[in-house]
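Handoff note, outgoing to incoming analyst
You'll be picking up this chain. Sequence as last confirmed:
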Amino acid sequence: PTAFPDVVQVRTMFRRRMRDFDVNIDVRNRALFAVPVAVALAALAIVLLRKPEMTLQFTEAELQDRISAKFPLEQGTFPFSVVYSDPDVRLERGSDRIGISFTATARLLEGRLAKGRLEGDMRLRYEPDQAAIFFEDTRIQGIEIESVPRPALDVVRRAAEPLLRNRLRQVPVHRFNARDLRRIGASGVLKSVVVADGMLKVVVGVP
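Most recent structure output, in case you need it:
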């Protein structure tokens, strides 16, 4: 004869099956929950490990406006004086330096004015104590003034470089406010400078 389980056995078997089912469901739910949690934790780790930084962008016109306020500038070089005016900023793609040129007007011994052009470039520096970026390291690449012989131009060039360097290094390119400083930190440095898309792109942040 076929033996049928009694009511107690049926209940026991049912409860056991339900417990096994609940365990399987719980395992699946935990696995499904663990995936987004792991992704979220990974994203949080990336954010926490990322060093704070700030990107600034400047056009040629913006840089030129900052410089123009400091010129004209006169250089009293023997045997004649030279006035530098009309600064013109040029940005060359891929460079970390800023091209600069000036109109150079010489007052010759006989009182006649002779005009020419001075070409050079410079870079940037960041001063944490002043919370500002300045021009730095101005270099003269060439100078030409009509009617002025090369030996005299060499004298002018040697005198012009420190004169322009000292003047331009006082020109602030950008000053950070309190909110910016909280973002980049007290130990911020100039991390990168490059010309791209017709603009000077500057990154300042924690090293």
